[in-house]
Amino acid sequence: MKAIDEPLKIATYRILQEVVNNTIKHSGCRELEVMLRLDERHLMLSFKDDGKGFDTSVQCDGFGIQGIDDRAAAFGGGLAIESSGAGTLINVKLPLFQ
Question: Which domain holds residue 59?
Answer without folding.
Answer: 6-95
